[in-house]
Amino acid sequence: MSFFETIERYRDFDFADAIGRAGEADIARALSAERPGPEDFLALLSPAAEGRLEDMARKSQEITLRQFGRVIQLYAPLYISNYCVNECAYCGFRQGTQIPRMKLTMEEIEREARIIAATGIRHILVLTGESRRESPVSYIGESIELLREHFSSVSAEVYPVDEPEYAELVASGLDGLTIYQETYDENVYDALHRGPKRDYRWRLDAPERACAAHVRTVGVGALLGLADWRRDAFLTGLHAAWLQDRFPEIEVSVSLPRLQPQEGHYTSPHEVGDKELVQIMCAFRLFIPRAGITVSTRERGYMRDNLVGLGVTRMSAGSHTEVGGYAQGPRTTGQFEIADHRSVEEVSAMIYSRGYQPVFKDWQNL
Ligand code: SF4
Asked: Is the pTM here over 0.90, yes or no?
């Protein structure tokens, strides 16, 4: 049984019609529901719900405080390689872009790790472009083994692998996997991807394979703006809920990255405004109250500040998206443009000023 079967049920579903038909009574029912169902979730994502955004935000805040308390976990991304064999139309690392390609040695990874760890960060997310030849599973595993010496939690955002390979990474010290489907719309997915990543189903099933291999946490999401964002947000929420039901022992989170400027200058045909981003976050919180919600430095500072308290539980800080960017500055192009350039200290101060506590460590890998 795979989440794909859930997606299949929505193959001929008329999202535009269902979302367009949602009215005040549907939003009121969704807001008062003890456990909102998929229909309620869809209503909360509809244009009609925009008029109840304040009520959604209030309820979202109440649930977040009850489930997570006044804390925001901080993490940093660490790009160790930008070699990639794919052509994703929206990405600065895609094979065809003329950027310097780099892969860090273990010594260079250690240097990056020391700089990040000196800021107090203890949760690290290691990322690569998708190239099995340049960044084989053995290389990623060796990096994880090294990073666990400096960080209490090591997560990865890398190309999808099979279950035994996930198990190999878990044995190296991996405790979390982040993998975004980019878009759940199979036709748009097919049009935007070239290379091994074009295999929609292999990517869709990756979180399940990682859960079966006993990762501790798994994060899913769509790159909002690539396709109809209401549909992508809806299926992201369903995906997270499905994983929670199927793997109750695993911590599931969602992310809501918006498409940002990048090398190649792909522009979004389905732009998501700030107000709409807040709506998506609140709808997530109401539908999947136990799921973590991550907001990265893709978002501008003022936006991130205002999302604290609304549902977010995890933020990146002091980030570099260039390979080797912490030690050497930008020798290569980043995967996307960072919009919040504040240091870890500045982001922490902002979180305190909002009445929340930044948490650097809530887990210790044994
Ligand atoms: S999104 Fe990932 S797979 Fe696609 S081009 Fe960028 S780095 Fe490669």
From this structure: yes
